Amino acid sequence: MMTFERDGAQLFASAANAVLPRIEAALGALAPDRAGSRLHGISALPALVGTGTRICAIAAEALGRPSRPVRAILFDKTAATNWSLGWHQDRTIVVAERRDVDGFGPWTIKAGLLHVAPPFDLLTRMVTLRLHLDPVGADNAPLMIAPGSHRFGRVAEPLIDGIVAACGVATCHAERGDVWLYATPILHASNAALAPSRRRVLQIDYAAEALPGGLEWLGI
Predict the structure, then answer these.
(1) What is the pLDDT along the chain (220 residues), one digit of tens a residue?
(2) What does the alpha-carbon distance between residue 178 and residue 87 come to, in Å, rounded to a whole number?
(3) DSSP string over 83-112
(4) Which has the least CB within 10 A, 56, 113, 168, 208?
(5) How far apart are CA 208 and CA 142, in angstroms?
(6) Does the pTM exceed 0.85?
(7) Smallest Cα–Cα separation from 60: which of 126, 131, 6?
(8) Distance (Å, rounded) from C-alpha 114 to C-alpha 111?
(9) Paired residues of 21 in beta bridges
(10) What is the distance of C-alpha 140 from the center of its chain?
């Protein structure tokens, strides 16, 4: 069994069960044929996963400080949207508006939201939660992680395979309502599903600090 302190990942079984029907209702208007939807402005969502909630408390305990959700993405893998994703680190955040601050860049716009790569050290003080709206077994593209890889800092692409080999690979199966906690910079990947069925995952990044230089988190 993995622990966040040792491996950078930990399972919280059934942690989202109580709010899952309301999360599904809040996300119900999203198009089901989109592989990934970057979320902002869904009015019901902050009350379900934001500050003061059981979900946010998982992040706050890991970070050791009061925390807030700063980015959300719904992944909806089906037979029609069945993709694979190679080993990588998540390296961008979403902000309210552009301000030129040392160490922040490059800038990109994805789904109309302003993204920027922050200094990597900032990512080491964030965590990511994945709330499973559907069960994820071995044939339905569970997330794979390299335990402990978050401690290697920013990993250059040519070094990724070697670090994954050194750390090993853990497969993150889940039941409906389970929540996985990850160190945001951990190396992770996903294969295409072998026997595709719907696999919805609400992924939320949490942070416990303000941004410098007048930058502001966009939030969810």
Answers:
(1) 999 999 999 999 999 999 999 999 999 877 666 667 899 999 999 999 999 999 999 999 999 999 999 999 999 887 778 778 899 999 999 999 999 999 999 999 999 999 999 999 999 999 999 999 999 999 888 999 999 999 999 999 999 999 999 999 999 999 999 999 999 999 999 998 887 778 899 999 999 999 999 999 999 9
(2) 23
(3) --EEEE----EEESS----TT---EEEETT
(4) 168
(5) 28
(6) yes
(7) 126
(8) 9
(9) none
(10) 18
Rounded to whole angstroms, how far apart are CA atoms 133 and 17?
9
Output the six-digit token pair for 70.
Answer: 């700063």
Residue with tokens 């995952």: 201
User: Which tokens belong to 97?
Assistant: 């508006």
N-terminal to C-terminal alpha carbon distance within the chain: 31
C-alpha distances in Å from residue 211, one per residue of 29, 90, 94, 113, 123? 32, 18, 11, 17, 12
Can you read off the two tokens belonging to residue 218?
A: 């966009």
- Cα distance between residue 156 and residue 162, in whole Å: 11
Q: How far apart are CA 94 and CA 69, in angstroms?
A: 11
For residue 140, give both structure tokens. Answer: 């339905």
Q: Which two tokens stand for residue 200?
A: 């919805």
Measured distance CA(202)–CA(6) in Å, rounded = 24
